# Entry
Amino acid sequence: MPSVQPHTLRTLATALDAGLGLSDLLETPKLSGSLPPPLVTTLRGAIRTSTPVGQALRRAELVDDSGAALLDAGLQGGFLPEALRATADLIDEGLRRRRRLLMAVAYPALVLLAACVIMPLPAIVQGGVGAWARVAVPGVLAIVSTLLLVFVVLPRSPVATRQRVTQLMARLPIVGAVVVDEARATGLDVLQRLLSAGVSVTRALPQALRATGLSAISSQERQAVVVVERGGTLTDALAKAGLADQETLGRLAVAEHTGTLDCALQGLVPELHDRSRRRSLALAAAFGVLVGVIGAVVVGWQIVRGFQGYMETIDAVGRE
# Structure
């Protein structure tokens, strides 16, 4: 999760819309004082060294690749306020995805926790609370630690660390398809916003590829631009970079041929985000059902074993 908050970016956009330049805004104490100090320091440094704003904020871990791509293009193309709002929208979408994921894994996590607590209960009869704790506590700690790592530590880790995790997840079976889907949707979202703002295809395409955060796609940046420079279509370039699947490429090819590419992208991007959302929720639901079934079977088996041990203990006491 980027360190800069969406409302901060929207505040900056509003100030710029009012006619203030970025330098003037930063040099006005009343206005700059309302912004987070790390953001002010980074922006001042970018202006002083003539560094692109997006790159500077990315190096400072304040935005991710998609935000940096939008901001740099906005500054170069004269639509920085719109780029700031678009970056805020992308951050909001990332926060919504995180909340959906948390809600999706809540059930399987509770099932696992219940299993860790319930399954060792027969040990209380045979060895006391200490015997139960030796079995139950490690499992509970492992589950809680994993949840904290995924939902607390990882979102606050450096952007590079989060990208490495994303790269790893993209290579996993089943889960990787969902990660790639979301990365493609983000890249096409950035592409649509840049093209709508009048940015040329050869400038917008590399920014969109970098915004995916996947090296398998962003590494095709130069090859994709060459396709366009040699007279190829944008659809051909997207196919070369792997930024869209065959179904999406087919729809974009028709739109590009009919001159309705911008409208097609505007309608397509929400569909791709929605498809990614549905797939991730379906995956989480399937995992939850699997965990629930396995947990129920294991708990039932432990209850039977515990009852058998209890009856054996009673029988032994009766023979004494």
Q: What stands out?
A: Residues 93-320 form one domain. The chain has a mean pLDDT of 82. The longest helix spans residues 261-319.
